[in-house]
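ESCALATION

Customer reports they have been waiting on this structure for their group meeting. Please prioritize. Original submission:
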Amino acid sequence: MSEIMNKKIIDGNYDQSLAVKCINGTFVGKKSENVITYKGIPFVDKQPVGDLRWKAPVDVTPDDGIYEAYNFAKLSCQDLSITDYQGEDCLYLNVFKTDDASASKKPVMVWIHGGAFVAGGTGIPLFDCSELVKENPDVIFVTVPYRLSVLGFLHLSHLTDGKDYPDAQNLGLLDQKMALKWVHENIAAFGGDPDNVTIWGESAGAGSVTMQPLIKGSQQYFQKVIAQSGAPSQTNSVEESISTTNDLMEVLGCKTVADLMKVDARTLIDTAAATVALRIFPVRDERILPFDPWEAYVNGIAKDIVFLQGCNKDEMNCFVSDWTVEGFKAWAADRKTKKYAHLLTDEERAKLELYCHDGAIEDWEPDSRLFGHSWFIDGAIKMSESQTMGGGKSYTYYYRAESSNPILKSAHFEEVPIVFAHPEMIEGRQYDAIFMKTMRKMWVQFAKTGNPSLSADISPDGKAKEWPLYDLDNKQVMVLDEFDIHPAKESEVKIVDWDKTYFLTKYYML
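Update from on-call: job pushed to the front of the queue and completed.
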């Protein structure tokens, strides 16, 4: 990853054919194999540093300057395992397009990355959209970052001097909204259609794109949503978020926001990772997000937005593999003691135990099933149910293609390298090339038309793929099997057990 920030061009020495005039400047991209990339474009007027830490993003202002857009910007502050090229000055997006003279406005797909709201970014090889552009020259792709961890999701307004930080608990979501506003106002200059925008994410990114329709004023910036393994269930209550803040401050020895402002970002991030890991989420605060997102969807808040969403069969197995079996078992035991034991009724716990242990072979499988349903699977289906109840449309999938890794199987994140056209980044064996291309084609067709179905003439295998809308009676989903992509009714593919697991959604994330 480059460590050279983009510079202002003052000598007029640049390729004008690669320059795009936007509200906040003219940005000059780079061309390679007919793909033009514009990296590191600021979508805020001022970066959230210094006195702007924990403040809402500042909208751009007109600028006649000409700037390089050659290099990815820093990642938002996080764990150093990906790169040490990170900082609080991180709100820059990237645009990928083909070099053509098409007069037609192109549909736009805006990617919002995942990473449990504490990690990830756009400037990593997996999210380079060059291959997607080569395969889909009639689409423009955009990748956007947002503030992470306690810099993006820290409740402060309950503190004695916190009244000036009313948005701190949901700043990451407001960053995303500001990026979508920039895309809406500037993407036409790149050849994109501001009235045909799909926001798209996985995991925390999927949670984000299902929360954006709930944020006042955000819906004007997009028409469609693709959510892979994420939902508004990935949120905290106000009480949970205040508890997280207080625990962090106790370890840091801080009493006020003023005290926190004196702590450097590295210390904040590292202390949060050691103290409140996996407790940092957007907050159902009724200021930015409603207290009950599900009720909002059922009441039709997003009835004019079309959704494509779903989950993977073995979601939590990714964490078992990444943390090691023993590490996962220890984490699960601790998590169950702190949340599961106190929230669920005796009857609910009994139902879950029966469901999670049925047919399990390995001793980690019951807990993997439990948290897979709590964190990802049941929430994805509740999104389909709630959106449909509200009069909206939802195309729902169930991903079942299995990795060669005996633990991963159809794990969380397994499909991401497929839809990004980076099969070289898949662990283990390669999936069938036609299967991978078909998935991408469905995603792109949805972004173009609002319907992921493929006619025979555009389907990679020459066979039509009719994807039914989710409905409350048949609960139809598209099953993504490696050699058999097909629509299936709930009677054939029971993603959730309506009696034994679905009640988990009322607890959001255990």
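Sent to customer with the following note: The longest strand covers residues 192-202.
Escalation resolved.
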